[in-house]
Amino acid sequence: MGKITIATFNCENLFRRFKFNSNISKESVEKKLKDGFIIDKTILSTVTETERELTAAAIKASKADIVCLQEIENMDTLKNFLSAYLSSAGYKYKMLIDGNDPRLIDVALISKIPFGNVKTHQYLKNGSSSVFSRDCLEVEFEIEGKPLTVFVNHFKSMFDQGNLTPAQKRAKTAAKRILQSNALLSIIKQKFPEPEKAAWIALGDLNDYPDSKSALKTLLNSNWMENVVQTRIQDESERWTHFWDTTSVPVEERYKQIDYIFLSKKIADQNPAAIPVIVRNGLSTKATKYAGVRFDGVTDKKTASDHCPVAVTITL
Fold first, then answer.
1. Per-residue pLDDT for 26 more than 70?
2. Which ranges of 86-123 would DSSP assign to H, the alpha helix?
3. CATH 3.60.10.10 is the classification of domain 3-315
C-alpha cells in the first residue's frame, strides 16, 4: 500500500551552536567560519554528547521512515551522528548538499527507503542574491512503485540584529520569506504542471507563524497543498512546534508553529485521517506548557532541540 511516515526536525545545530548574542560583524563571522571544522569559541560552542543523544532520541520517537533535517553542518557531521547515535535505526540513506548559509548549516534528509534523483535549488537568484537562505532540497522516491517527491526547506529566520521587538524583527525579515514561499510554489509548479494531482510533500522549518501577518500566506492559502498541523490538530493550543526560551515576549508568544508539513492535495485527499504527531519529549524543562514525560537527560539547558520533530503517516 506504500504506507510511510515522514518527519521534519530542526536539530538546532547538530555539532556547533552559534552564539547569537556575540557582538561581532557578519564579515568577521564569515571569516571565522571559513573552515567548517575549526571551532572558534568566540562565536561558537560545541554541543554536548548528552544533547546529541537527546536529538537521536527525538528522531527515533518520530518513528519516521524519512526525516527531513535542518541545521546540519555538513555530510561528515551527519554520517558521524548516524553512526554514533542511530546506527541501529535503519537510516541507511542520506543526502546533504552544502548550501548558502554563512553559519554553514544545511538542510538534509535521512531515510530508511532508497531514493533516486536529487536536485538543489540553492543557485536560484533574485538579482545578485540567493533566494534560499540554505536550500530547497528536492528528493525523488519510488515507494512500492508509486512516486513521491519531497522538498526540504529552511526559510529565512525571524532573528535580526538590532534593538527591535520580536514583532518588528518578524516584519523586517518577512520579505525574504515571501520570496522563498513564492519560489517554492514556482518550483513545484514547474515540476508538476498540475500540482494538485501529483504526489509531493513540502516541509521544514519555515520560520513564521500561520496567522494573518504570516509571510507564508501564498503557501497557506494555496489550494494545491494542506498545512496538516493547522488543519488536522483540532486543539489550536496544541499546534505549536517550537519553544522560544526568552523573557522578552509574553509566555503565549513563546509557543508557536514554525515547522510545517504541507501535503499535496492528492496525498491529503487520499489520507483524510492522517493526523500529525508532534514529539515534545526533548524540549527544555522551561517549556512548561508541555507537561508530558521527557527523555532521560533533559534539563532546562540540555535538550534535543528548541524545535519538535513533526511527523505524519500517509499511504500513497
1. no
2. none
3. yes
